[in-house]
Amino acid sequence: MAMLAASPPGSVDVAVGAAIPAVNFGVAPDFSLGVEEELLLVHADGHGLAHTAVDVLAGLSSPPGQGTAQPEAYAEVIELATPVCSDATEGAGWARVLRARLRATGATTIGSGLHPTGAFGDVVHFPSPRYRRIASEMRGLQARTPTCALHIHVGMPDAEAAIRACNALRTHLPLLQALAANSPFWHGRDSGFASARAQVFRAFPRSEIPAAFASFDEYAERVGALVAAGDLPDYTWLWWDIRPHPRLGTVEVRALDSQSSLRAVAGITALVHALAHWAVEQRGPWENREVLMESSFRAARDGLEATLWHDGALRPAAEVARMTLNLARPHAREIGSEAALEEIERLLAEGNGATRQRAAFARGGIPAVLAHLVDETARIS
């Protein structure tokens, strides 16, 4: 994420120990957006995994201020990060530009939480110190199959607002996960999950929905304890579904499958953006972590067909979505994301990425799934 790659003049740079070396809330404009999407590299012929990130990145450059392409843990994955944006439509527009630059190198990509046919163990780790260390510590977990996610950052006015936003947004993570579910196939077969990626990633340590925090000081204290207990470099090794990102000055929603459809990127980003605007004003009470984790599992398993615990009862995901859209719309209107938010209505009517992958399979098996993902990821609208 390139929202604040370095602290600009006048930034707040508060040392709170090695766990959180810098705090930059309030530096970027309030509620500015950044979108990061991890895309799988595949061969043009047959669409199997391609271990080519080193070569692709060597041939790819972005002008300053126009986003970045970055390595990820696997040599089969590239992460595209937009510049700071004002709304979801702009964010999706930059994602379109970055995808086009990637295609111009000759790379073929798919947006999906997992590669539908990637064989167990068909991975190459990206050769960097960070990713070598992750591979060494995660061992067999890191040698299974690459995972790809959509991460959405929203700029926060101050540290306490970031904590309130995290606490309140946790409630909506299962719905967001259901809307974004886009990985039903693994190792050449239907997993039975709408988001198999979510369950693969859950095997990693520190990959959960965190409990609520009473304050930024409590957050810093708990993060410091985790970093010390795990002998970790800093807080970025806490792979929570949602987390404050003090160095960037954002709240980061991380629990979402990578998307092939740019329209889906725009709609999901718009919903996160609007809910973050709502969330900073909330004061609790906060939803129980264990309840959220259960709904998260149900969202990953059943996608838009799930029933989720919301407002004191198990409700169909579509009903939860309608309630959430009613909550989000006034805030989307205020921050300029209302038009993009209409994509959520289309997802509810036509289905999410998992729905489209399974429909492709019904038409022509796994080859049709792969062709669908390549085509939709390359589509400019």
Short description:
The chain has helices spanning 53-58, 88-104, 129-138, 159-169, 173-180, 196-202, 216-230, 262-279, 289-302, 317-335, 338-350, 353-378, and strands at residues 33-42, 68-71, 77-81, 108-110, 149-155, 185-186, 189-190, 242-245, 250-257, 307-310, 313-316.
Short key terms for the protein model shown above:
381 residues; 7-stranded antiparallel sheet; two-stranded antiparallel ribbon; disordered N terminus
Note down, in words, how this protein is organized.
This protein is α+β, with helices and mostly antiparallel strands and 381 residues long. The relative contact order is 0.16. Strands 1, 2, 3, 4, 5, 8 and 9 form a seven-stranded antiparallel sheet that branches. A two-stranded antiparallel sheet has the order 6-7. A two-stranded antiparallel ribbon has the order 10-11. Helix 10 packs antiparallel against helix 11. The longest helix has 26 residues. The chain has one domain: 2-Layer Sandwich (Creatine Kinase, Chain A, domain 2), CATH 3.30.590.20. It starts with 32 loop residues before the first strand and ends with a helix. The N terminus is likely disordered. Helices cover 43% and strands 14% of the residues. The chain is globular and about 55 Å long. The chain contains twelve helices and eleven strands.
